[in-house]
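Throughout our pipeline, every protein is held as a single compact record rather than as scattered files. The remainder of this section carries one protein's record, kept here as part of the documentation.

===
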Amino acid sequence: MKLRKLNLISFGKFKNYSLELEDGLNIIYGENESGKTTIHNFIEGMFYGFQSPNATTRKKPLEEKAKYNPWHEDSYKGILTFEKDGKTYRIERDFKSDKVRVFDDLTGRDITDEIDNGERIKIHLPGLHFFKFNSYVYRNTIAIRQLENRVDSQLAREVKDKLINMTTAMDDTISVNNAINELDDMLAEIGTERAYTQPYAMAKKKLSSLMEKRRENLQKKEEFNQVTEEYSRIKKEMEEKKEEIESLKELLNKAIMAKMKRDYEEALRIKSDLEEIDRKIEELKPYSNIREEDYHSALKIQGDIRVLEGEIKAIHDNTKSMESQLKGLQEEIIEKEDKVYSDIFDDYAKYNELEEERSSLFMKSQKNRMDILSSEIKQAEEKVKGAKMQRIVFSVAALIFLGLTFINRLFAAGAALGIIFAVYSSSSYKDAKNKVQSLQEELSRLKSEEDSRNGRIAEIDSLKADILKKYSLSSKSELSRLYEDQRFSLANRTSISNQIQELIIIIMDLSRELEQKTSEKENLERNLADLLSRNGLESIDSFKAALDKKRNYNSLLADRSNKLELYKRVIGNTTLEELESKIIDTDVEAVDRDADEIRAELEGLEEEYNELTNEYSRIEVKLETLNNYVTELIEIEEEIEAVKSKIESMERKIKAINTAKEAILKISADIHNEFAPRINRDVSMLISEITDGKYTNVKIDEDFSITVENPVSNETISLDSLSGGTMDQIHFALRFSLISSIKDERLPLILDDCFIQYDDKRLENILKYIDKACRDMQILLFTCQNREKEILDRLNLKYNLIALG
């Protein structure tokens, strides 16, 4: 098989990018992040659709599917063209919709339906069809990634299965491993005792359940026999109870007939009483509409009228008394009006005013002051005379001493004193004279005022005398008595006038009250007349008699209702005529027991009978149920035999399957013994070549655990003891050998930076080997280094270079 063209329409970072591949070695060079791994994964995705080999649903693809979905594109698709067995094929895949189509590129024929489907998810997987192995084997053989040269146990199982198929069947379509799987599936379908959902465990469980059910049904059979005995006992007891019930029913019928006769006689008596009551009711019927509340209302109205009549009479009497008092007061006031002096009050007041004025003037008299002033004037005049004399004496003395001064200067002091005293005496004289003049002027003024006051007093005395003369009186005391008499008379007349006004108001109020009470009385009388008229009566007394008859009427109605109720209870749902017809031609026997007592006993027996019936029915149902268990017991016995037979059959089948598995596993071991030397030889030869003969003997066991023989000591050492580069070389050799072992045809080999740990010597050796291998197979080498190109160019080896820009 050879890949020819990759067209990344929309995948990861690529859009409408294509590259063509040639036979032999194709070096795809690009720096990191240039898209080498993207192209590597594109090839796998086109063949396997990013579906896990163990997936059970297409809804859980590998994470690469989401990783390479373009962010800014609606489409997610590509095309891959390759050659196989002389034909060219084209795969078109839409990763977004999970749709894939495969074409014969020469004819253009769609061969998608001829492509194998996945075993679990039922979608077309071209890789499974063309490579004949799943994506897991693909990733561990054809496609070798950076630092992924190691081989694990899962790949070991896949390769071993492939080798067995090739060796035993000589046909890749027949899988011995699948046969083992099918046998295991057959065993799984049968199951073990621990696989509770599988037929074998279920059959064992069913057998256990049937045995338990058989034991339970045997117990039910024993219970069935016991219940059958109970059933017979209850049936017999029911028959006895039924005979007792029939006997009591006959006795009850006799008691009922006796009661019916008594009821008939009682009904006749009640009917007679009812007829008499109906006659009396008919007589009193005219009084049936008398209203007792109207009677009470009439009594109240009558009482109210009597109260009003008393109040009206009292008002009449009170009015007459008030009118008599009014007339007496009016006559008295007329008599008093003839003796009244109308001016006495003013004159009396004026007289008092004059008297008060006279007293005031008298109290203001200055006579005493005038006497005092006259005395003071005399004293002042005496002082004037004395001061005048002193002034003369001191003046003369001063002159004398002044004259003596000429004789003796010592007399100058006496002259000075004389002058001083003379001046002082002159001043005192002047002051005394001024005081005399002032006192004389004041005395003159007071005399003038006193004369004026005396004139007014005389005038007042004249006016007072005129007032007394007016009323023919001689003194103020007489005037005072006249004034008091007139004041009392006036007060008495005012009081009488007030009494007259009050009486008039009272009389008017009484008149209005009389009118109101009279109107109320008339309204009450009309209401009373209406009440009497409404009840067809003329007076209160007749109302009372009629009401007594109404009460008697109502009592008769109640009595009739009670009698009628008693009558209905006595005859029940029948009629008197029917009762008569039932007993008239029947010989009624006397029964010493009451029908109710018999009925109660009968009900007790019937209740016991019903309980027995219910118990009988319950036991019947129980017997029917238990009978099902008895019947089922036979079926269980048969089913137990069938299940035992089925278990024995499955156990024989399990034994046969295990025998077949042992045979196939023996074949598998033999095949490993046959192929292991070949794989060991191929790997050893390849290792020897690429290590320049340093390691020549490599051993690989059944699980692909690798050991290497030390060429110096010939001891076996584990792979982990070697350097990383040597380990990668051995793993590469193993993978390369496996491709040849599991597939006759030459498949392309895809290497993605898997020589990054090789030194230059190792890389040169492996490139030499790859150059030989490329003569009959295609190899794609993805690298981010120039070492491969430089070594190939130096060795002058052929290759196709594809540079990613």
Summary: The radius of gyration is 81 Å.
